[in-house]
Amino acid sequence: MSGSPDTDGNDDFLVDDDASEPASVDPASASAGGRLVLVGTPIGNLGDASERMQRAIETADVIAAEDTRRFLSLTQRLELTHTKRVISVFDHNEQSRAPELVELIRSGQTVVLLSDAGMPAVSDPGYRVVKACAEAGLPITSTPGPSAVLMALAVSGLPSDRFSFEGFLPRKSGARKNLLEELRSEKRTMVFFESPHRIADTMDDFLTVIGPDRPMSISRELTKTYEETMRGTVSSLRDLAADGLRGELALVLAGATAVETAPEDHLDTVGELVESGVRAKDAAGQVAKQFGLSKREVYEAWLHRE
């Protein structure tokens, strides 16, 4: 993410054409010593394959790919020359592969890590390898690439100055509702991934927990031929999704609107929790967290209620 140049004349974030390091020096393909390079790959449109991405693949000593067959297909479609070692690193073997990759990098080899689409380690394999390399003190860099998270946020029309990425929603409705309950009072814009097979049930849960009027968007098939972003409210998008939607989906939900409330406004909720067996102090803490209040003030209001 990048900021806009400071209009007051502060050019700290502007590119310095006289910088001491030439622009042609690419950390992702530098040959001095081993390193881990996270490579972002297209999420649909091959035109998004950057020159740096392609050069990193062609100059790597080892390729660690989520799916080796998809990786080879990508290189064929991009007409990349690649004869180096390719190994698989996916969810179920990443933990066991990490020590091997650490040793390869220690020995001076450059390992390129990539997933099927988008940035590795963001809802894709890669985090455990990055963690292992960081703990070993090894160099780690990245060639930035397409991101469904940022693209969905950017085209949503919702506030993007502060946001959270919540990843894939839980598969089961109960767990999904519990998560949405936790996020109901979150004031930042939220981005989720969801399967087209579950979108109708998921939108039912959004309607139940979040309510009908919260603004949101659903983007599908980002960067692909049938790319579409639907904008509206939870209720209107729930109706659109009732019969299901095709393609990979990114949901963007507006944050909760700050509402000025006092501790006294929520004593009935505290009382309901107490009646269910929750200690008064714990009940006050839960209510305070949900409504952005002081736990001490809610508890004091409960103790001095009329």
Automatic annotation (TrEMBL):
Domain called Tetrapyrrole methylase: residue spans: 35-237
Localisation: Cytoplasm
Enzyme kind, highest EC tier: transferase
Domain RsmI HTH, first and last residues per copy: 261-303
The keyword Cytoplasm is assigned to this record: yes
Acidic residues biased stretches: 8-20
One GO CC term on file: cytoplasm
Location of the region described as Disordered in the Swiss-Prot/TrEMBL record: 1-29
GO molecular function, one term: rRNA (cytosine-2'-O-)-methyltransferase activity
PROSITE patterns: RSMI
Reactions catalysed, as given in the entry: cytidine(1402) in 16S rRNA + S-adenosyl-L-methionine = 2'-O-methylcytidine(1402) in 16S rRNA + S-adenosyl-L-homocysteine + H(+)
One Pfam match: RsmI_C
Record keywords, A-Z: Cytoplasm, Methyltransferase, rRNA processing, S-adenosyl-L-methionine, Transferase
Function per UniProt: Catalyzes the 2'-O-methylation of the ribose of cytidine 1402 (C1402) in 16S rRNA.
Cross-referenced NCBIfam families: 16S rRNA (cytidine(1402)-2'-O)-methyltransferase (TIGR00096)
Protein name, UniProt field: Ribosomal RNA small subunit methyltransferase I
The organism of origin for this protein: Brevibacterium aurantiacum
